[in-house]
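Side project, low priority. Logging it here so it doesn't get lost.
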Amino acid sequence: MKETLLQIKTFFQSVHFKKYARRFGIFILILIGLLLLACGGLSIYFNQNKTEIIAKINTKINENIKGKFHIGDFQYKFLTGFPNFTLALKGVELKDNKWNTHHHTLLKAQEIEARLNVWSLLQKEVNIHKILINDADIYIYKTKDGYTNSNIFKAKKKKSPENKSKPETTIDEIDLSDVHIIIDNQLGNKLFDFDVHSLKSKVDYDEDDWNTDLFINTQINSLAFNTVHGSFAKEKELKGTLSVTYHADKQKIDVSTKNLKIGSDSFDIVAYFHVGKSNSLFGININTRILWSNASHLLSGNISSKLNRFDLKKPIDVNCDLKGDLNVHDDPKIVVQAVAKNNKLTIPDGQIDKCNFRGIFTNNFKPKDGFNDPNSAVILTRFSGEYENIPLSIPQVVISNLEKPIATGNVSSDFDIERLNEVSNEKWIHFEEGHAKANLKFQFDIVDLYINKPRFIGNIDVDNASFHYIPKNVHAVKTNIHLDFTEKALLIKQIAYKHKKNTIFVEGKIDNFLNLYYDVPEKMIVNWKIYCPNIDLKQFLGVLASSQKKKTVLKNNKRTTISNHLRNVIDKCVVVIDIKADKINYNKLTATNTKATISMLDSKLVIKNGSLQTSGGSITFNSEVLPNGKNYAFSSNAQVNRVDIASFLRSFNNFGITSFNPNNIKGRLTSTANVSGFINSRGELITNSMHGKLNFKVNQGALLNFEPIVKVGKFAFPFRDVKNITFSDLSGNLNMRGEQIDVNNLTISSSVLNIDVDGIYSFGRGTNLALTIPLRNSKNDAKLASKAERDAVRERGFVLHLLAVDDGGKMKIKWGKKEK
């Protein structure tokens, strides 16, 4: 290595090398001198021939334009563009002949450099090979009648055969620096506005055809294909190299580019433009991979204002195709295709995770209806994702008429219903287990880009659902539900509802469901048919519990969610139930063959045409039950027909009467009642709460070991069986007033004696009953043929007048008549 460096050093120090180095230096100096002499000569030539050159340039330009060309000054630029002759034109203006009408100057430049071929110039010809335009304004204006100020160049004269081989003056290179370009098309309602920082183009000619690689660095101020709707790519930087080709026979320009930067994103673009007088068709095809928000900001205002309400977290593949006519007032035809994979889609109504779709936007959905918002549509295919944790699959959805959008399509879903717990922030229902499948055809309006009044046709199946309905404290297990949405009604089928030890089979129908659900839920009537093999009514009183209603204040104009709307409908709708039960238990009452029509409005329960069999007889009734604080207020009209009185009294805890118990009486009770009162949360009658009228009659009755009668009988009727008294008549009218009962015309016709009772019976203090007791033996009265005969002998003989009165909370028997 050292030897090599030594040899190099020795070579540079040798006489031979110094000799050639001196000669090379002299050559360079001579070359520079010749260059300076040439430039100086060109400068001298320009100064001597300045007037002639300017005249030729003006002549050359004015020969080819229909307008006015003005140059403020000329300047020769020494050495610039050598070996070409560089001429700087100062204060250049180019106007068309109608400038006084529209006042738009086609070209106004502080400086234009024209590089002329030296050899042509020496031959007295002007041949411009390069134009450099600096600090200029270009305004291309087209009026509504089709006139344009760019139509300033005169038509070329056809070459004669003898001149055909003579080349024309051409401009091989064009450079722009700090040039503001406006293309204002009033005829097509289009406006293109660019601030060109730099543009470089070297043109290759093939007779009348040409092509170039155009480098451009510019800012887009406006790219409006319809100024009413705004600009594409507004305020975006555009930078890249475009391959441009002009076909003279077709009067068409083709443009293509790879990785063209618009803002921070790269685009592959293929485009064409027809530039003939009668043909201004164009087409632009754009390919890119871009974020949704970035793509939206590149579109015109009428589109981006809608797209900005949506977002996709990851970039998507996009292809945009625009086709139109620069001379037509309407928008171009726009078709945008996009592909999203495993993305996160944000929509005004929420968020869709794991989102996949192929999407198409078109502003020409129906080919004959033009390019506009009412004829625009978004078509999504193979859409899948999870909306609020619910999986969705939509083969195709069409959102048409973007002025008043309507979405139609089919949606299917298959999921465990515990996922529904994440749908609502308000915990009004909690799902524990179960599985749901849905297959629905849907249609809904989109108002301000929110889903509004979705309508469904199809079915939803839920299997083995367990849930807790919190406002009513209802807990259901292993419930199956089949919902069938039709155009006229919602059919609810195959519900097997299990609640504690009860199983209920339910079918339902809601007529005009789709309209009433959204507009007037209070008019929606849910018709249920319920069959119960065995049911305990006390366990279902919680269903009537009044959920505490709170006024919901929507913060920041937050919309009502689907969950909140559903809860509101449940609270407002009317529920009508036709119920049939083989067996019903209520406290100690057991009823069979029960039928009733039940209506539920808010928390009010109305029972009509109720009938049941119990205690060996039957009961028909109409009732109302309404939550009242922690209790339930009820009112009822009932007809009791020949029920076993002892069993019946046991079922209702003897109605709170403590002076006798059901073991003291037997017989068949027939009664009519119109009463009201209260039941507690355990389903038990609240003593002293009943009001109303009760008429009753007992057939085949008997009074067994009734203590007050037994006490009297010991000394008054020692020879009569007062422990086993049978009745031929036991009837009366009662007026219940809470704690007290007015006893009117209580008639007892028995085997021991007859008794008539009037007065007040109290569950607490204040009992005052007047007893009229004839002492004669009435054992054989039942054998008399008619009631008149029995009435005639009823009070013969001695008659006792007793009072049963309250004495310190106990009943005391004493002599006396009822006070008037």
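Brief comment: The longest strand covers residues 450-469.
Revisit when time allows.
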